[in-house]
Design a protein that fits this description.
Distance between the termini: 18 Å
CATH class: Alpha Beta
Strand content: 15-25%
CATH topology: Alpha-Beta Plaits
CATH architecture: 2-Layer Sandwich
Number of helices: 7
Radius of gyration: 14 Å
Order of helices and strands: EHHEHHEHHEH
Largest sheet: 4 strands, antiparallel
Mean pLDDT: 98
Structural class: alpha+beta
Low-confidence stretches: none
Strand order of the largest sheet: 2-3-1-4
Bound molecules: adenosine-3',5'-cyclic-monophosphate
Helix content: 25-40%
CATH superfamily: Nucleoside diphosphate kinase-like domain
Number of strands: 4
Oligomer: single chain
Number of domains: 1
Length: 138
């Protein structure tokens, strides 16, 4: 069944000029782009987005990094979009990411790992609505 997921091309990948290549790979993999915009979050906005990680030791580092520059937020549609997008991204730690995945090609470390993706359909809906209004989704 065709479903939606949410993705972020993180500040490291945008800073390196890799966002165009990543969007091309997303299209080539058969995703329909339903929403896309460039944003620059405040640290407070990043803290809201990553609230489930608030108790983790890397929370400060994560939210500082995510607000360090522009990123591209995406609403993506595909058959079983959540697992399909996670497979295209590769493992969270790029050292463990599969050949051909985005993190293998574009990520430098577990903290600066080029892309984010939702881990469930429920969280995809929550994360899409955190960044997109209904009018911004086609
Ligand atoms: P993401 O999928 O965006 O969700 C939470 C993020 O926390 C994750 O990707 C990583 O970039 C980051 N993260 C996970 N573990 C660590 C860690 N040990 N140190 C720094 N950042 C981490």
């Amino acid at each position: 069944m065709s479903t939606l997921t949410f993705g972020i091309i993180k500040p490291d990948a945008v800073r390196a000029g890799n966002h165009g290549a990543i969007i091309q790979k997303i299209s080539d993999a058969g995703f329909k782009i339903r929403g896309l915009k460039l944003i620059h979050q405040t640290q407070k906005q990043a803290e809201g987005f990553y609230a489930v990680h608030a108790e983790r030791p890397f929370f400060g580092e994560l939210t500082e990094f995510m607000s360090s520059g522009p990123c591209v937020v995406l609403a993506l549609e595909k058959s079983d979009a959540v697992p399909a997008w996670r497979e295209l991204m590769g493992a969270t730690n790029p050292a463990e990411a599969a050949e051909g995945s985005l993190r293998k090609q574009f990520a430098a470390s577990i903290g600066e790992n080029a892309v984010h993706g939702s881990d469930s359909d429920e969280n995809a809906a929550i994360e899409i609505s955190y960044f997109f209004s209904k009018l911004e989704l086609v």
